Structures are given as structure tokens and as C-alpha cells.
């Protein structure tokens, strides 16, 4: 029996996302994600200009004049949501944590998928794969996916995207839409050990992601259509001026003291995070992966809409 407060939370997300899906994104979703191939639809009489390779010779022989096979795009897709449950996802400087925003974005995509009769699956990961839910259809299944993203208790606190991608490559035999929802944060040492200790909390784009994940991401995107949803919080990009703070790393448990009243340190932190953000985008581009940048303190509907519009234009002209 699911507790009432959990059901209420899931229902609130469904209500918030359903309007966006109904009014905007479901149609865009249909137009920008291609099916896995072409299905036979019917035969019709040959017309000048038709591709002769499409001629159905059996029907042509019976009818004594040429007929061709007509195909339609196969619309049924599989959407695999790959969601980061590492400890940093619990952070949020506003009303919503990064994990809650990930659940909401997953809800939008999942409801768009089932409106188009597509399947939705889920991989939850931290330092390894925490849970795998095979792709299925239907509202009840989607509500289960949202519940797991919100309330699953991970066994580990760290991050290993590679393990999730490697499982995804094993369990998805056909080309699918793979959406990675993560803050893409990893543990790195500070560049100056005697200062900037606050950077040990988190630094975007860890050494592991720079080196190993590029290869796995590129491999995944060759076999599937991979989209990276990069979720950040304002105070991961810039430190608030609040004086001396004691901070605890959500993934390692390390405690550091930070003097946020030092304007130079705040500026250095912001510059370093901006460079790391740029490097992450460079990694996605190098792997030919589309990405969406979202923040917990900003509405997401516009960013999703722009993403779909960009893909639709590229599909029309490509």
C-alpha cells in the first residue's frame, strides 16, 4: 500500500505536467523523434517518378501492370529514462531539489511518450545501477516510474554514469530515445590545495566523465538517440554572500568551511564553474549529443519547447 503523502506528491506532478503535455509538448514530441524504421502499409499503382525498387513484383505479375509497396514510418518508440540518484541530487536552494525537478521532467517526457503509444523504461543509478524497470506502456506504469525517481532510496551516494550506460546498451536491442537526467557532478581535487576548499563539494565534469564517459556516451549515441538533461542549481554556479559557512559534501560526507564573504573567492568560483559548464557542453557536442540546460530556480517549459523546436527545424532541413 502506497502512503497517502507519496500518492499526493505523484498526483501533484501529474497535474502540473499534464497541461504542458496536452497543450504543447505531445505534438512536438511526435514530430521530432523518429520511429525505428518503416512499416508496410499497402500497395498502390505505380506512378511516374516512383522508386522502381519499391515495385511489388508479385502483385504486378497478378495484375499485369506495376504496383509499388507503400510504407509508413514506424511510430512506436522506446524511451529509456536514465536518472542520477547520487547524493548531490537532493540539493536545492529553492522550493524544488534537483531530484524533484528530474522527476518532473521525466514525467513530461513519459506522458508525452505514452500519448504517442510509446514505451517508457527507467534506469536509476548512483555509483552503480540501483534499479532497472523494463519499458512498458500505460499511465499506471508511468506513475510507477515517477514514484521510483522521487522516493527510491539509493544504496550509494556517489556517481558512475558509465555503469548505467553500459546496462542500457545491453538491455535495449533496438534504437531508442535515451534521456539522461543528471547534474553531471563529480569529485575532483581543488587546483590550489591551500585555498578554494569549497570546490571539493562538487565540480562539474569530473575526471571520470572527461575521460571514460566520452567514449561510452559516443558509443551510446551511435546506437540510440541520446539526450542529456543537465540539471543545476543557482548556488552550484555562484556562491551566495553569507559569510562563513560549514558545508558537507552530499556524496563523500566531507565537511569544509567556506568564507563566502570574500568577493574574490566568489568570483573565482563562478569563473571556474562557468568553464566547467562550457567543458561539459563541449563533451556533449563531441559525442554529438543534444542537451538541455535546466535550473531549479527557473521555469523549464520554455527550455523544453526550444529544444523540441530546434530538433524539429533540424529534422526538416536535414
Structure description:
The chain has helices at residues 4-32, 57-63, 98-115, 139-151, 161-171, 207-223, 234-237, 263-286, 301-317, and strands spanning 38-45, 67-73, 78-84, 119-125, 129-136, 177-182, 185-186, 203-204, 225-232, 244-248, 255-259, 290-295. By secondary structure, the protein is an alpha/beta fold. The chain folds into two domains: 40-73, no CATH class; 75-317, Rossmann fold. Helix 1 packs across helix 4 (139-151) and helix 6 (207-223) packs parallel to helix 8 (263-286).
Brief account:
The protein has 318 residues and is α/β, with parallel strands linked by helices.
Helix and strand arrangement:
Blueprint: H1 4-32, E1 38-45, H2 57-63, E2 67-73, E3 78-84, H3 98-115, E4 119-125, E5 129-136, H4 139-151, H5 161-171, E6 177-182, E7 185-186, E8 203-204, H6 207-223, E9 225-232, H7 234-237, E10 244-248, E11 255-259, H8 263-286, E12 290-295, H9 301-317
Main traits of this protein?
Rossmann fold, alpha/beta, 318 residues, single chain, 6-stranded mixed β-sheet, 12 strands, two-stranded antiparallel ribbon, 9 helices
